[in-house]
Amino acid sequence: MKKRIIISTVLIGALMTGGIAMAKSYGSWPGNGNGNGYSNNQEMMTKGKHQQQMQNRLERMSVILDLSDNQEEQIEALFNKHWQDRQAVRDEMRVGREGRRPAMRSGDLDETTLRSNLAERAEFKADRIVEREQLKKEVYAILSPEQQEKAETIWETRGKGQNGRYAKRFGI
């Protein structure tokens, strides 16, 4: 009898310990993850991280499209300019979001305010799509006709995989 109780207790304890060890927090909200409002797999885009991503993107573009040094410099300047322009808009959106959250959590946000906030977000998304197309147009202006054809082919074929994520990462 005692043996059964001991075995049952040890088994239940082992199962609970395993379950706790395997538990993973999901989602991203302030206080979840590394304490800065981002979960462990999500980081705020810093200038250093942007530089690293831009260098990786330029290396891929240079290899695939056979870019000259001058073209690389021009495209790098374009990427930096667009990133800096977006930073101001991101900061503005962050301030608005931080202002909305307390009101939404407390239930004080009225329908009119909510609708105006949602319209603002929709406009922001539309602006981002337009900016992306403008960047693509500016990059294409730097490329030769052969490079443009190659980039368009890559964009068409690779853009369809993974919900179009490759084309976004590739920057064209």
Describe the structure.
By secondary structure, the protein is an all-alpha fold. The chain has one domain (about 45-170). The chain contains six helices and no strands. The model is unreliable at about 25-40 (pLDDT under 50).
Number of DSSP helical runs: 6
Distance between the termini: 71 Å
Largest sheet: none
Strand content: under 5%
- Alpha-beta content class: mainly alpha
The overall pLDDT, averaged over residues, is 76
Low-pLDDT ranges: 25-42
Q: Which term fits the overall shape?
A: flat
Q: How many beta-strand runs? A: 0
Helix-strand pattern: HHHHHH
Radius of gyration (Å): 24 Å
Number of domain modules: 1
Q: What portion of residues is helical?
A: over 70%
Features:
172 residues; 6 helices
Q: Would you summarize the structure shown here?
A:
Residues 93-113 are annotated as: Disordered. The protein has helices spanning 2-22, 47-65, 69-106, 111-142, 145-158, 165-170.
Question: What's the topology here?
Answer:
Layout: H1 2-22, H2 47-65, H3 69-106, H4 111-142, H5 145-158, H6 165-170
Helix pairs in contact: 2-3, 3-4
